[in-house]
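Thread amino acids onto this structure.
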């Protein structure tokens, strides 16, 4: 409404300027037939009235008040035009057209019935003004009274109401069209709100990018999954977050309607795996881009990996006992035969060295068989007592200082609590620490540090064991918990991490391993906490 009133003020000012221009041209061409004094006074009055209406807008508040203000203006306009018509000769005045203009303008502010009433009001003013000039005050010196002036009035009546009906028709059509527009706008608003609710309540992350991979829009779930605030996501390249090649995505989208891939997250302290579905999307006219929907598949992938390892180890365990027993008998015979040979064969440098090698390797094979038997006999039953995980690790660390492999590295320990109470078997957990820290020491150079960190996360405690040694190639990470998997340790049996994995599973805990060649390996353990004193 305020904008409409401003348009009315501008229109009035334009019409005043046109009337003044008309008067000036009439004076210059000698066509002026009415006194210019009252005319200019009236134009000045209209100008001041227009200025007053403009300043009144600063005090008028509310839709109803603005509507009343607009209606009062067009009523005053009708009076001003009547005075102007009277001053300029009534029947002979060229400014009668002003009535038609304000009748058309009234269609902006009045209803259809109101327009007809206002048309009747304008015609009444015109009629009484004409009668007043005809029988009363006449400003025009050579005013001629036409005998057929009644026909002129009748013609003006037809013109007034024709314009009034046209204005009413356009008002009705405009109102109907505006109503449809509002209805469509409300429908679009509801649909947009519904769409936004769906997008925001998705448990998947949804984002759009341009062809370069620059993120343009995200839903709230994206910030949660990427663990970053929205300003650090929008406007940045998606490749800064997803560990995937842009060329792979572009070629995949071009090859089909949708391209699905799994990728990890850059810059995350824990391994996160996302399942991403990408498709082409036209963001705006002639501005193509990508629509990506992704979910956190870390837990699912870890379960799949755990299930795969459990199935594989179960199958190996069934064979282990029989194979181990079959190997132990020949080994016992070999060891006994070597002892007999030592007594029967004269001892010499060559024979003694060969028998030492046979005895040493036989002992090594016997140790492997013993560990394999222990591994194959492992059952899901563990000691079930509450114990302090920190105290357990500190006891291990004290003993580890004297281990021939661990004493060559620097063990750096950090804790965020005085105690971490868990349920389980402390001896088995101590063995887990021995295997993991010894592996880290074997992968490290003398003098390098091994960082262990204990942190509380909700109802669990996370243990991180980080070395900065040679690392493990990515293609071998999937086999790291499999039996007989050895890396850079030809003297190892390859059962250490398999036993660690089984022990962690028995304690209903989680284990994850992250490694990068040349930078080191990090093992993450997560144990459920218990309240002190519970069992």
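Threaded sequence (535 positions):
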């Amino acid at each position: 409404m305020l904008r409409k009133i401003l348009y009315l003020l501008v229109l009035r000012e334009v019409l005043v300027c046109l009337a003044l221009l008309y008067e000036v041209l009439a004076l210059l061409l000698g066509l002026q037939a009415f006194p210019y004094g009252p005319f200019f006074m009236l134009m000045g009055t209209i100008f001041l009235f227009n200025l007053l209406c403009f300043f009144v807008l600063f005090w008028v508040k509310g839709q109803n008040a603005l509507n009343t203000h607009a209606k009062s203006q067009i009523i005053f306009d009708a009076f001003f035009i009547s005075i102007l018509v009277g001053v300029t000769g009534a029947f002979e005045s060229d400014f009668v057209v002003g009535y038609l203009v304000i009748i058309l303008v009234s269609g902006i502010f009045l209803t259809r019935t109101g327009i007809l009433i206002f048309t009747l009001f304008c015609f009444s003013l015109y009629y009484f003004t004409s009668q007043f000039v005809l029988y009363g005050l006449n400003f025009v010196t050579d005013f001629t009274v036409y005998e057929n002036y009644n026909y002129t009035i009748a013609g003006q009546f037809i013109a007034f109401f024709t314009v009034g009906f046209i204005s009413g028709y356009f008002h009705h059509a405009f109102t109907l069209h505006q109503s449809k527009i509002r209805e469509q706008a409300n429908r679009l608003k509801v649909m947009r709100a519904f769409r936004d609710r769906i997008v925001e309540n998705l448990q998947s992350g949804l984002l759009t990018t341009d062809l370069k991979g620059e993120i343009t829009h995200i839903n709230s779930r994206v910030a949660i999954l990427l663990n970053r605030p929205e300003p650090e996501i929008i406007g940045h390249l998606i490749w800064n977050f997803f560990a995937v090649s842009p060329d792979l995505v572009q070629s995949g989208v071009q090859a089909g309607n949708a391209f699905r891939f799994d990728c990890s997250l850059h810059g995350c302290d824990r391994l996160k795996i996302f399942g991403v579905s990408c498709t082409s999307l036209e963001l705006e006219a002639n501005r193509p881009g990508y629509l990506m929907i992704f979910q956190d598949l870390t837990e699912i992938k870890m379960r799949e990996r755990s299930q795969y390892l459990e199935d594989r180890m179960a199958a190996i365990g069934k064979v282990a006992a029989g194979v181990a027993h079959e190997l132990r008998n020949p080994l016992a015979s070999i060891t006994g035969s070597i002892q007999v040979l030592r007594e029967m064969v004269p001892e010499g440098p060559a024979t003694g060295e060969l028998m030492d090698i046979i005895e040493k390797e036989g002992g090594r094979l016997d140790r492997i068989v013993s560990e394999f038997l222990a591994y194959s006999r492992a059952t899901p039953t563990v000691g079930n007592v509450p114990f302090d995980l920190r105290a357990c690790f500190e006891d291990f660390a004290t003993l580890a200082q004297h281990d021939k492999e661990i004493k060559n590295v620097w063990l750096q320990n950090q804790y965020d609590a005085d105690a971490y109470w868990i349920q389980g078997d402390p001896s088995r957990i101590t063995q887990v620490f021995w295997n993991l820290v010894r592996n880290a020491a074997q992968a490290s150079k003398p003098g390098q540090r091994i960082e262990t960190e204990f942190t509380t996360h909700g109802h669990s405690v996370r243990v991180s064991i980080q070395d900065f040694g040679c690392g493990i190639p990515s293609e071998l990470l999937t086999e790291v918990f499999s039996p007989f998997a050895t890396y850079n340790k030809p003297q190892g049996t390859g059962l250490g991490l398999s036993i660690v994995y089984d022990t962690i599973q028995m304690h209903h805990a989680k284990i994850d391993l992250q490694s990068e060649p040349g930078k080191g390996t990090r093992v993450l353990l997560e144990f459920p906490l218990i309240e002190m004193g519970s069992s």
